[in-house]
Amino acid sequence: MSRISRLVVLVASVAAVVGALAGTASAVTWHVNGTGTFTATGPAVTLSSSTGGTFVCPSASVTGTYVAGSFVGTTYSGISGTMTYTGCNLAGQNTEITCGYRLTTTAQPTVTTVTSGTIDLTCGLTLANPGTKLCHIEGTVPATYTDNAATADTLALATSSTLRSTGAGCILGTNDVVERSPQTLTVTSNSGRGPHIVRTV
Fold first, then answer.
1. Mean pLDDT of 175-182
2. Is 137 in contact with 123 (CB distance < 8 Å)?
3. Does the pLDDT value for residue 9 go beyond 50?
4. Prediction pTM value
5. Regarding the domain delimited by 29-200, which CATH topology (the fold level of the hierarchy) does it fall under?
6. Residues near 165 by Cβ (< 8 Å), separated by ≥ 6?
7. What CA–CA distance (Å, rounded) separates 90 from 118?
8. Where are the domains of the chain?
9. Where are the beta strands (DSSP E) in 91-171?
């Protein structure tokens, strides 16, 4: 191999190493610590649609699970669980809403404290007794998880108009846009501690 050929190979190798190091340095990693489970409660929430009805659920009970560890990726989707709303009054009937959720974090505006993203919701609106399902509701809601040092952690769900309802006879309409009022859930387990999330680059 000529001297020029060896020089070309050397330059290419150095460029490859520099590129690899740059890629490693810019990799996003989510570090999650905690017990792996939490519970939370929340105040009243209102659901409404332009063509259907409006009703209020007086409170929420929430469970959540997550896997502690370090995860490489631009987002982290490791927190999921169930939100249950009972005592909802719909045209004089006692109803309840049960939602499966998954939180996907995308940014950390305040390092180690405030983590933002979206929550995917899949909900069923049912008569409390006998449990007949009236509506299916699903979509995404902007969310912010706050790791408070002096008080309990919170999960804040912003106002959303991206949810949709389906179901024959659904009071919120069929394939109608459902608006959900904002709500802040407060962690009640583990002395108010949920997952501790740190995003590094």
1. 92
2. yes
3. no
4. 0.83
5. Porin (2.40.160)
6. 49, 52, 125, 135, 136, 137, 172, 173, 174, 175, 176, 178
7. 28
8. 29-200
9. 93-110, 114-127, 133-146, 154-157, 160-166
